[in-house]
Design a protein that fits this description.
single chain, 186 residues, alpha+beta, six-stranded mixed sheet, two-stranded antiparallel sheet, 7 helices, 8 strands
Length: 186
Amino acid sequence: MMGNQRSEAVQKEMKTEMAKEEMNLRKATFAGGCFWCTEADFEKLPGVVKVISGYTGGNKENPAYAEVSSGTTGHVEAVQVYYDPSKITYEELLNYFWKHVDPTDPGGQFVDRGAQYRSIIFYHDEDQKQLAEKSKEGLGKSGRFNKPIATEILKFTKFYEAEDYHQDYYKTHSLKYKFLPIRIWP
């Protein structure tokens, strides 16, 4: 093989391997207040391949940040978590989620107020639904909180990626991100 042909063959093989890897990934969708913080939280987990900030749960097609943050679209700020189930389970993602939200607050998360910042687990299939409900029930029975668990569990419908400047905000605007109000448990 000539050098150029070998290079093309290697690139094709790499693309095939990447496609196979992506086929084995699973998707989970969570809303936990500001998506900048939720994205940063989940990207720290081994087995999580990528996290995308966006909007879901509302009734407006292709919403923009200004619309969602105004609370007029019915959407929430959310993240889609792409993970390798051979390295991390959906149950582990759920457990991690519960530790990064105030599940008793129906009016938003921490300093982010309004329905567009409430915590929600969006399930993609019946298995995720059952696991999320079981996890929520277990948290409610744990005695950890003196108020009922307000986090909703809703069927996933459609996800709209947030504008580019919101993706990886904690990396691309690290100084600004460091000065965001700290998430403090009630």
